[in-house]
Design brief:
The structure is a single chain. By secondary structure, the chain is an alpha+beta fold. Helices cover 37% and strands 18% of the residues. The protein contains nine helices and ten strands. A five-stranded antiparallel β-sheet has the order 1-2-3-5-4, covered by helices on one side. The protein has a three-stranded antiparallel β-sheet with strand order 6-8-9, covered by helices on one side. A two-stranded antiparallel sheet has the order 7-10. Helix 5 runs antiparallel to helix 6 and helix 7 (202-217) packs across helix 9.
Length: 257
Amino acid sequence: MINSLPENIRHYIEGKPFTTDSTGLSQSEVYVFDTMVLKVEPMKEWIFAMISVMNSLEGVLPLPHMIYHGVCEGKSYLLTERAKGVMACDEFYMTHPDLLLPVLAESLHRLWAVDVRKCPRERSLDTELAEARERIQAGLVDLSNSDCGFGTPYELLYWLEQNKPDPEPCVSHGDLCLPNIFIDGDKLSALIDIGDMGVADKWRDISLLYRSLKQNADGTFGKVYKGIDPERLFDYIGIKKDEKKLKYYLLLDELFG
């Protein structure tokens, strides 16, 4: 694979040992080096928007430094510095909730603290619903294995369009799940996979983070961690749990799964 890469990217990585990473990936190929990560995937317009966000928010948020980005024969090649530490779903942190939960809360607080004017990308609810409709029309949404309570994607979309919550805009990660949060010691070290980052409702991230914590603890992914109480996340965040907004954004995610 390395020998088939474009010369511009091969310059950085040739001869260096690597492993591959398939955690949560679909069309992407990820190569992990000692100090760098290379992500190769089909080029889409949103990748340029993500690069703009990375450039604008570097130093503001703990995002991996971009070393190189190029496009060749319809593929995007993104080389970044490797995040320090481990994923938040690492067994050590899942068995030490008093270390884990403050960092998860910090990931939200760091995002909320950013001036939205610094973020060049808008990911409002109307934008997401429009994209959801495009996905449905393209036949990319299948609810046959979902327990969301809606018979068809269009029924769910109609409900979402008629029940939009009042937004609380902030800089949103867009996919704030435990594998995308890196911890080094007791500190947040990086937020990765920011392809959906932009200005959006804060409950978008809260909902996905809450679900991710719950599923990583309850055996959904194979192992049960009895010491994790997902409800404590709201104590660390410092806000009251809003069941309606959690439900809304988790239902919205059904159209992007």
